[in-house]
Amino acid sequence: MMDVKQYKDAVASLYEIAPSFQNVGQAGYKPGLQNMIDFDALPKHPHHSFKTIHVAGTNGKGSVAHMIAAILAASGYRTGLYTSPHLMDFRERIKVMDRDEGNPHISCSMISQEDVLSFLSSADSFISANKPSFFEITTAMAFDWFRSEKVDFAVVECGLGGRFDSTNVITPELSVITTIGYDHKDILGDTLSEIAFEKAGIIKPFVPVVIGEMPHQARRVIQTEASKVDAPSVYVPVNVGNVHSPLGCALMGLDVSEMDLKCSVQQRNIHTVACCIDLLIDRNLLGVDDSVTPEILNIMRHTASLTGLRGRWEVLSESPEIICDIGHNENALTPVMAQLRKLFELLHPSQFFIIFGMASDKDIESVRHLLPQDARYIFTNAKGSRAMPAESLRRIVTQEWGEDRCDLVSQSVEEAVRIFYGIASDDSLLYIGGSSYVVAEAIPIVEEYKNLSQDSC
Description:
Number of domains: 2
Largest sheet: 8 strands, mixed
Shape: globular
Radius of gyration: 22 Å
CATH architecture of the largest domain: 3-Layer(aba) Sandwich
Strand order of the largest sheet: 4-3-2-5-1-6-7-8
CATH class of the largest domain: Alpha Beta
Number of strands: 14
């Protein structure tokens, strides 16, 4: 029987010996690919045993990766999915999805605790000798597990950037770059062109690349890099009228209102996914019986619930109304804040709250103007050294908002949620965001309150 304590101790030890970017920021990032190349060679290049799709981008890459993986699984392909960061459980990063014959749904399984332990044990000597990063270890773990699970495809999300990302040891069947915006400027560059160049590092010779909607200067850099290696490029906004496969056309016709991924920006992601699927079908990499298209569309509509994707305009509670979203930069928060304003005007809540925290390495000035001043804020900080102290964040955000504010400061996300429940009414509106780590810590606390409320009814 699995020793849960042994598993927890192993994961805790992993965080200690290889601090993650999630917790420590740039100190957890190792540029260059040689260490990952050597690590990948240890189990004899496991990713050579399955087809891959590589997804990069400033925003939207997680949603796009989950949608593509759901469609592949719904089409009858055993599909691996590697994403980051995790919100609730380390094992969320590494999943396998499948569809049993005759079953209209897909199954989605995280890597088991036993398999995590087994990999860490087998790689112990290499880890001790070469000191790989946390992300290098989890990438190698994912590829090794996907091979043992005999997947047909693996959808692989870049962790950070592209050119030097640990995942960039693969040669995929298709590359996808969803968006380009300002994020991780301390590592990727100060301009959109510089950031686009780093993301374009995933493009491989002769491998087509699908390019999502993005500023012209970023698109130009990516298309230039693609042309250098004879990689065909498809720009989604221009190609939407050229999608022609029955499944691609059906996907293109989906409206975000039909999805359980409810943020308006998901409409762009749906179009990107439709172009990807159309291209895979064109290249005979994806065979789909047109008769199952309605079932595939139904699975696409329920991507989040079927694949375990959380924190994307997720409704955690309806009384009070609580929304969370992991958007943390200007590119992501612009549509999210616009949608939050629409929700506020629709609900006319008696109270409007925002629990907000950010990492200290994020460009807070670039998002400050997006935040609604008529909300009452509970500024907070997630665990870990990356988090900006709540009081410092409050000063930056509200410095031009006047002195007569009633905002609050909390030293932990748990305390912030409990403060909200202590002063809110059932018809209040709460938004939780600014950081995926704030959202990750808030979700179980909100769910605890929700369960208590249901139990008392």
